[in-house]
Design a protein that fits this description.
This protein is an alpha+beta fold. The protein has five helices and eight strands. The chain has an eight-stranded mixed β-sheet. Helix 1 crosses helix 2. The chain is globular.
Length: 178
C-alpha cells in the first residue's frame, strides 16, 4: 500500500516490522522519530495492529498509519482505523500527535486526508470519540468535517456520513487544498 501525502505530511501505512520496533521502544535502523514519539497511544495502536495481523491478517488499507512530516521525515504521531469496515461501510478512527507538534494543524490535515481516503475506498460513515475535556481533539474532528452526534458521561462522539450525492466539487472544497 502506498503512503497518503498531504501538503506537509506523509501518512505511512505501518508494517509489521515497524509496529514491532515501535512497541519495543527501539527504533529500527532507519527510523526517524521526533522527540516524544512514540506516545502511549502510538504504542497501543501498534499493538492493536499486530494483534489484528495475527488474528485476521493485515487490515490495510484499514490499519494504522504513522504521521511523518514531509520536511524532515520524522514520525510525529499516528492515526488510523480501528479495524475493517462493518457491513454498513462504517469505520472508527483514532489519532494523536506528540505534544511538541500539537497546535500546528497537523492533526486536522492528517484526519482530512484519512477521511478522503476512506470515502474513496467506499466508506459511508466514519466515527471517532474523545473525552469531554479534550477540546483540541473536538476542534480537530469538527475542522476535518465531522459533527458531534452524541455524548455520554465519559465521551463525545463524532461522525461524518456521505450520501450518493457527494460531489467532487464538495470534495475539493472540503479537503482544504490537501
Amino acid at each position: 500500500m502506498e503512503c497518503l501525502v498531504t501538503a506537509r505530511l506523509v501518512l505511512h501505512p505501518m508494517s509489521v516490522a515497524e509496529a514491532v520496533a515501535l512497541t519495543s521502544d527501539e527504533p529500527g535502523r532507519n527510523a526517524r522519530w521526533a522527540p516524544g514519539y512514540p506516545t502511549e497511544a502510538d504504542t497501543a495502536g501498534a499493538r492493536r495492529y499486530l494483534e489484528t495481523c495475527e488474528s485476521a491478517g493485515d487490515p490495510q488499507p484499514f490499519g494504522t498509519y504513522e504521521i511523518r512530516r514531509r520536511e524532515d521525515g520524522r514520525a510525529i504521531g499516528g492515526l488510523g482505523f480501528h479495524g475493517a469496515p462493518d457491513l454498513d461501510g462504517t469505520v472508527t478512527i483514532g489519532y494523536g500527535l506528540v505534544p511538541a507538534v500539537q497546535g500546528n494543524g497537523y492533526a486536522t490535515e492528517a484526519l482530512r486526508a484519512l477521511l478522503l481516503f476512506a470515502r474513496a475506498e467506499g466508506i459511508t460513515r466514519v466515527k471517532g470519540d474523545t473525552s469531554h475535556d479534550n477540546i483540541a481533539s473536538q476542534r480537530v474532528m469538527t475542522a476535518a468535517g465531522m459533527s458531534l452526534v452524541a455524548q455520554d458521561e465519559r465521551l463525545k462522539y463524532y461522525a461524518v456520513e456521505w450520501t450518493e450525492d457527494w460531489t467532487e466539487e464538495w470534495t475539493e472544497e472540503w479537503a482544504g487544498g490537501l
